[in-house]
């Protein structure tokens, strides 16, 4: 009986540690996702700045008769920056998808392990209840025997 309780306590502690580990991993993955989101915001800010720069260059080119070569260089730079932004957005999407898949897998594993632990605990509870019922019957029998002996002694 004590061994089963010890095993139950050990299993409970094991699952508590597992749950703490999963929570820690979840926090780490959430932080990585937030960092990725911050990077996207920064990339969007940079894209906005580059677009403003292009608009100024176009204004300069059309308003002041700017150098065609300079305008072409600016167009190439904008195209390059937009390609970099698209690449960064794709990387972010892949990272986000990967992190989400990893979190989902860890959550499913934790859920299945928790269900197993709860089933084991329920089984142990049933065994302990059966032992408790058996002990109660034996105590009742001893009480009856004690009463019979007292009655026999008093007569």
Automatic annotation (TrEMBL):
Superkingdom of this protein's organism: Eukaryota
Keywords recorded for this protein, A-Z: Coiled coil
Record has Coiled coil as a keyword: yes
Chain coiled-coil ranges: 26-152
KW Coiled coil (keyword) present: yes
Molecular-function GO term, any one: G protein-coupled glutamate receptor binding
Stored PANTHER family: HOMER
Protein name per the record: Homer
